[in-house]
Amino acid sequence: MELQARCLCVVAMLLVAGLAALEPAHGAGECGRVPVDQVALKLAPCAAATQNPRATVPASCCAQVRAIGRNPKCLCAVMLSDTARKAGVKPGVAMTIPKRCAIANRPVGYKCGRMHSHRTHPHSYTLP
């Protein structure tokens, strides 16, 4: 009887483990474990600079872009996010912000757009 109980317990544990393996993984995305749209909100100080290439880029914007830009994949995803689009961000202008902030170690030539994102974006952009 004790052997049957142990076997039943082992089978139950294997069944639970098997079901857990079938669950979709919620791993890291372009910006790690933080959703892209949440990171995009940090770029609020950049609003005017993302719409006008001649607008002065505030220091607070440059600080956020510098931090986010350490991961070019994240920076691209943020600049092309739904949140950015709804806020009126012009991606071609937004991509110039790292250069306008004179960020020395920016990823010059990094391509953003449909080839670097799981979302389909109609255009690709290159960071200057």
Defining key terms:
45% helix, mainly alpha, globular, 128 residues, disordered N terminus, Hydrophobic Seed Protein
Outline: globular
Radius of gyration: 22 Å
**What share of residues are in beta strands?**
under 5%
Strand order of the largest sheet: 1-2
CATH architecture of the domain at 35-122: Orthogonal Bundle
Spell out the CATH superfamily of the domain at 35-122. Answer: Plant lipid-transfer and hydrophobic proteins
Mean pLDDT: 79
Distance between the termini: 73 Å
Q: What order do the SSEs take from the amino end to the carboxyl end, as H and E?
A: HHHHHHHEE
Low-confidence stretches: 3-26
> Sheet bearing the most strands, described?
2 strands, antiparallel
Work out the helix count: 7
DSSP, total strands: 2
What class would the helix/strand composition place it in? mainly alpha
Q: Classify the fold: give the CATH topology of the domain at 35-122.
A: Hydrophobic Seed Protein
Helical coverage, percent range: 40-55%
Under CATH at level 1, the class of the domain at 35-122 stands as Mainly Alpha
Protein name: Bifunctional inhibitor/plant lipid transfer protein/seed storage helical domain-containing protein
Organism: Urochloa decumbens
Keywords: Signal
Signal peptide: 1-27
